[in-house]
Amino acid sequence: MKYLVPSLMILLLAGCASRDMSDLRSYVEEVKNRPPTPIEPIPQIKQSETYLYAGSEGRNPFVPTEDVSDAMVADTGTGPRPDPNRRKEELESYPLDSLRMVGTLDQNQAVWALVQSPDGTIHRVKAGNYLGQNDGRIISIEEEKINVVELIPNSGGGYLERQASLTLGERDSS
Fold first, then answer.
1. Where are the domains of the chain?
2. Bridge partners for 100 per DSSP
3. N or C: which end of the chain has fewer CB within 10 A?
4. The CATH classification of domain 89-167, taken from the options 3.20.20.210, 2.30.30.830, 1.20.120.420, 3.30.200.20
5. What is the distance between the alpha carbons of residues 16 and 14, in angstroms, rounded to a whole number?
6. How many C-alpha atoms does 146 have within 13 Å on its Cβ side?
7. Which residues contact 165 (CB under 8 A, 6 or more apart)?
8. Mean pLDDT per 10-residue run, the chain (174 residues)?
């Protein structure tokens, strides 16, 4: 066995060296003689319209308008807020768009969703669990979608609820 493998290797190499290469040479010659394919022309770059801001024209972009200033009033403590005493779940350490729904599971009359984290681990979650970095709470699980409500900080110190979802086989599709 010790001598059989080297002997076979020598025979294989000898067979390759003595083979007629005329068909390969003729093919290479044919390819070299083909006319070259034309290169597409460089696309024309469309010139963008420039705008010169003169400080005296129009409104000052650094002063909020009436509508915006109403929304920027300091938060009075009402409305949705994240629970600072709630223990964070494992899937909250990943951005929502990096998580993937890979399936559902019906077990003991409860619907679970299977979510894959970026490290490849599959996690089993149900309505009420949290995922994503914006305090995203699962509100419902459908056969092909996980519906999530996230709490997004607003400019006034409060939070706004935003609907998002994880679709089966796709990344976040808010």
1. 89-167
2. 116
3. N
4. 2.30.30.830
5. 5
6. 35
7. 145, 146, 147, 148, 172, 173, 174
8. 76 64 90 90 85 69 61 58 88 92 88 92 93 92 92 83 85 48
